[in-house]
Amino acid sequence: MARAKKQTHQITLHLEAGNAAMTDLGKMLGQTGVNLVEVKRSYDRATADQRGDVVPVVVTVADDRSFELRLKTPPTSHLIRKALGGKGSDRPGHSSAGRLSAAQLRAVAQRKLPDLNTTDLAVAMRIVAGTARSMGVTVADQ
Questions:
Q1: What is the pLDDT of residues 55-113, one digit of tens each?
Q2: DSSP state letter for 116
Q3: CB 32, CB 81: distance < 8 Å
Q4: In this structure, what DSSP letter does residue 25 have?
Q5: How far is it between the farthest Cα atoms of the chain?
Q6: Cβ–Cβ under 8 Å, residues 86 and 97
Q7: Domain of 99?
Q8: Is the pTM higher than 0.85?
Q9: Domain count, the chain
Q10: How far apart are CA 103 and CA 105, in angstroms?
Q11: Does residue 22 sit in the same domain as residue 63?
């Protein structure tokens, strides 16, 4: 009779797509006893087409030291910085870090839609616009 696997750890990591750092994996997953090299290979293989992005992953480790990866979309702030080609403001609300066009806002919202708690693109755009404003980015009228 086969024994059911029991989940022992669930850890969320923010790693560089296609090139996960072994030091980050070791710090966070070392105590689980999982094969770190195999986790790195699986993650790098799954995110190879998203190089240059930070792709969060939820690593679920079972009691037999097997693991499962669940990829998420890159953080909203990362996508906004990528769309602007720079970074956020040093003083949000006082100085602007750039302007996010309606097309850029829509593109970021569409990319983030699977991880947001809505299925409506207009609501997703408002969520992304709020993040952009908190970064000191001016948002074009939608």
A1: 999 999 998 889 999 999 999 989 998 888 877 666 776 667 778 889 999 999 999 99
A2: S
A3: no
A4: H
A5: 65
A6: yes
A7: 76-139
A8: no
A9: 2
A10: 5
A11: yes
